[in-house]
Design the sequence.
């Protein structure tokens, strides 16, 4: 089947995906090699998520990662992304002081990092409006927003019960009205995600939000099995690269200790030193 995707994915192309009935693919990436792999895999959107804090930097949650750390990784992912839309996640504390701080930090992601849009967690229409007014395209993120970890009392499914359902529907409408071009829905009941998706004109990207969303997103390390701590039920592991990497690294260590690495073919000769070699060795080196 012909690839209907544009040579370069743009914000308006993403925003119109649900009109076209197209299912979007978003994956996280945090550096040059992961962005290249994600793009080669056909993702429409490369998200430099603040999950960086957990899967790359080893923190227990996403709260500690800073603007400067995020920016460093956005720049690297930029160098590995040619076709997909590059979205930078605004880390905790980078927009919570108000619209002015949000715009200043988001502009850094676009100007210094080469991102094409930012993602903000939570229902913050005043922040989204200010960003859009400053020419920064905004992706919203509702449901289990990890930056709200302490308010939620843990990583818990959101939007359960009538009150929570109503609140999420209202928040989604606010995010769209504020000018967001897409909305991530994380860890909410599938029926609620379907309702949000049906009500909004902008596409929804689900993670633990069922199959009715306009697209799906997963974290690079989860999908590939690099992240081996307990996986939430929405993670499908398509590979076990953590295990494969451990086996490969252990094989290297064994070979070194047993003197099997490097072999002659993995080593260099100095032909000038050949004077000291036996005639048969000289013939091997010079092809005699
Ligand atoms: O930080 C992240 O990786 C995210 C995605 C899971 C949507 O926000």
Sequence:
């Amino acid at each position: 089947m012909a690839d209907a995707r544009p040579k370069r994915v743009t914000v308006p192309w993403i925003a119109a995906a649900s009109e076209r009935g197209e299912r979007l693919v978003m994956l996280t990436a945090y550096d040059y090699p992961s962005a290249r792999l994600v793009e080669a895999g056909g993702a429409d959107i490369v998200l430099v998520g603040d999950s960086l804090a957990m899967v790359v930097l080893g923190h227990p949650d996403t709260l500690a990662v800073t603007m400067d750390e995020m920016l460093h990784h956005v720049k690297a992912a930029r160098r590995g992304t040619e076709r997909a839309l590059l979205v930078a996640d605004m880390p905790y504390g980078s927009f919570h002081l108000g619209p002015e701080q949000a715009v200043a930090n988001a502009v850094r992601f676009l100007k210094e990092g080469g991102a094409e849009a930012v993602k903000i967690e939570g229902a913050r229409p005043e922040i989204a409006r200010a960003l859009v007014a400053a020419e920064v395209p905004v992706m919203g993120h509702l449901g289990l927003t990890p930056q709200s970890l302490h308010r939620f009392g843990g990583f818990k499914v959101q939007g359960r019960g009538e009150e929570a359902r109503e609140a999420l529907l209202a928040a989604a409408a606010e995010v769209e009205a504020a000018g967001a071009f897409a909305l991530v829905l994380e860890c909410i009941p599938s029926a609620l995600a379907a309702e949000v998706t049906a009500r909004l004109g902008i596409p929804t990207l689900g993670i633990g939000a069922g199959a009715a969303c306009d697209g799906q997103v997963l974290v690079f390390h989860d999908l590939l099995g690099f992240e081996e701590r307990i996986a939430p039920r929405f993670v499908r592991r398509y590979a076990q690269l953590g295990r494969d990497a451990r086996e490969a690294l252990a094989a290297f260590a064994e070979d070194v200790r047993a003197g099997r690495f490097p072999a002659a073919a993995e080593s260099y000769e100095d032909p000038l030193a050949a004077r000291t070699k036996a005639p048969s060795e000289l013939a091997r080196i010079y092809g005699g």
In short: The chain has a mean pLDDT of 95.
